[in-house]
Specification:
The protein is an alpha+beta fold and 298 residues long. It has 14 helices and 4 strands. Helix 5 crosses helix 7 and helix 12 packs antiparallel against helix 13. It starts with a helix and ends with a helix.
Length: 298
């Protein structure tokens, strides 16, 4: 909590310091060099940035940017239209005057899913790796806008995601971060050399990015309708999904539940209200999984 407060207060200052430091650090390879070349002031900043974990390593951040206003009312309207002889204005007035929860619950139980497609949700996500975003964009019934590695230069230092298992192993972690430093050096060297040949901007970035790893951080905006989100959650909240996309999907689910609690009441991995769909690949933790996701509804 204290660290968070300090972080908020000093965010602007740190963001600026981080960019400057990143440029300096990527000119160096080993910790020894870092110690001798960095000034005392830079050392303090580096240590502090490490303390609050905002130096180069990142973690997922999910924001629900926009959603259909009154999503559950819109879905109820679409569904009622299917069954009602009323005209649309009369229907609209009726729906606005009534609580639609019971009707919506019945609709979902009946698997009458097309009305749910009328509610859509736009998320902004940052602090995920390219490995994660590559899995995300396999979901085809969605719209995506991703930060470009052509138009955005990574010369001042690319951020990256460290898998927890690598982070907890000191030796692996060092290997991993050394490799990131090396990738950055090769990237910067490639850009500079291409610049000397008169190839600037996106022309240089688009080739230099070939050395960036799957761990490189990315930012992406996506829009999915509620039906696709339910499908996405069933696959990606599952323990069989890779840890990073699962973490992201759970954050998305929490946000979606806040604005459309009835639509997403039973959302989660496929095993929540049915046998595990993974068969012999089951994680074997159905009880714990159910407990976790049912707790999200409270
Ligand atoms: C645990 C896990 C492991 C995975 N491992 C791999 C892997 O090793 N290799 C790999 O390549 N992928 C892998 N994937 C990705 C997976 O194959 C799917 O591409 C991804 O999960 C998107 O699912 P989807 O196609 O159902 O969903 P979406 O693209 O979100 O589509 C939603 C639904 O719409 C319908 N639909 C969409 N497009 C079509 C279409 N063209 N024709 C007919 N129906 C359509 C389908 O019913 C589909 O389920 C993995 C996914 C998971 C969750």
């Amino acid at each position: 909590m204290i660290v968070f407060a300090r972080y908020t207060l000093e965010k602007n200052y740190l963001t600026e310091r981080k960019s400057l430091l990143k440029i300096r650090l990527f000119q160096l390879t080993r910790d020894n060099d870092r110690q001798t070349v960095l000034s005392a002031n830079e050392h303090d900043t580096y240590a502090y940035l490490q303390e609050v974990e905002i130096l180069m390593e990142t973690t997922v951040k999910v924001i629900l940017l926009r959603h259909t206003p009154d999503p559950e009312e819109v879905v109820a309207m679409a569904a009622k239209l299917c069954y009602s002889p009323s005209d649309i204005e009369a229907l609209k007035e009726k729906i606005e005057a009534k609580d639609q929860n019971i009707f919506l619950k019945r609709l979902i139980e009946m698997h009458h899913m097309s009305p749910i497609e009328h509610a859509s949700f736009t998320f902004a996500i940052e602090g995920i790796s390219r490995a994660c975003s590559h899995q995300l964009v396999r979901h085809r019934l969605a719209s995506y806008s991703q930060q470009s590695q052509r138009y955005v230069s990574e010369e001042s230092g690319f951020d990256y995601v460290v898998p927890p298992l690598i982070k907890e192993d000191e030796e692996l972690y060092r290997y991993f971060t050394d490799f990131m430093t090396q990738a950055q050096k090769t990237y910067n060297h490639t850009v500079k050399k291409l610049n000397k040949k008169g190839i600037e901007g996106e022309g240089a970035n688009q080739d230099a990015r070939f050395v960036l790893p799957n761990a490189a951080e990315t930012k992406i905006m996506l829009t999915m309708n509620a039906r696709e989100l339910l499908h996405f959650f069933s696959q990606r909240c599952c323990n069989r999904a890779q840890w990073e996309i699962r973490r992201m999907a759970v954050e998305m689910l929490k946000l979606a539940k806040k604005v459309a609690p009835v639509i997403f009441e039973k959302a989660g991995p496929g095993c929540l209200y049915a046998p595990c769909p993974e068969g012999s690949h089951t994680c074997g933790k159905i009880k714990e999984v159910r407990k976790t996701f049912l707790a999200l509804s409270i």
